Amino acid sequence: MTQNFRPIPSELKSGLIEVASNIWTIEAKDYVHYRPPMQPRYPYTHRSVVIRLNDNSLLILSPIQLTPDIRTEINALGVVKYLVSPNHLHHLYMGDWQQAYPKAKLYASPRLVPKRKDLTFDKTLSTDTFEPEWIDQIEQCVFGSGNGWFDEIVFFHCESHTVVFTDMIMDFEPTIFSPISRMTTRWNQMYKNTPFGVQLAHTFDRVSLRDSLKTVRTWKPKHLIVAHSPWLCLDEEEQVANFLDSAFNWLEPQPFIVEAIMTATRFSMLLFIVLPIHALIVLIADLIYPRLMGQGGSK
Ligand SMILES: [Fe+2]
């Protein structure tokens, strides 16, 4: 089935785009450069999501760099009341936003509090319990490994039926990568899929993730947003359902013996193949290749 992704408009003043009623994205104009464990450093396109609650307050998911233009448009939408990090990786600009909006509450995702000791968080969103401040407006579900490697909170804006994933699903634009990065991103399933590293992190916790995915399906989302994609969102319930089926294909339950063999195989691959080869690629991509090309090291 053809997937009709809504394109990002080419002309944007600040980066804010309305997805549906009372929900917007903020598109970052610059890349964030990040190196996933034992991989080359990639340029990531990224976005925030802004949700306006019934009392006209705003909740910002994954705050990106706050520019004067963004701030002007945000202030026109409402009062920033909540700054939320959906996982322990999307926190870079929370401090800047907190300075700009000192009355806003900071909500941490699991593992972020010990990582950002410089910030004072009001709460850690580590459970599926609905927040009283946004009950009946926003639902949330933890995709948690419980092993401390990677957890993410997936949000659902009830009014617009929009589900927001952060890093559980990624889709990159391959043309922005070097040939080495194109190869490693394909190998790591970073195109309309759960990145392979995240899949491996959940090797022993697939049952819990299946339950989380079931919860997402019960929401019957009509729009889907992910943090890293060259498109804005996916519309229509059937399109979103099919996309989720495909992206989470790796979670399909198997007979016990098959599941056990797959788990052992994944774990062995991680230890003996993926990590050693990635170490070699990192060495070439970040250390040797830039020197050969006269680029003077990684960013
Ligand atoms: Fe991310």
UniProtKB/TrEMBL annotation:
SUPFAM superfamilies: Metallo-hydrolase/oxidoreductase. The keyword Membrane applies. The keyword DNA-binding does not apply. The chain crosses the membrane at residues 267-289. It comes from the Bacteria. Keywords: Membrane, Transmembrane, Transmembrane helix. This is DUF4336 domain-containing protein. It comes from Hyella patelloides LEGE 07179. The lineage of its organism: Bacteria, Bacillati, Cyanobacteriota, Cyanophyceae, Pleurocapsales.
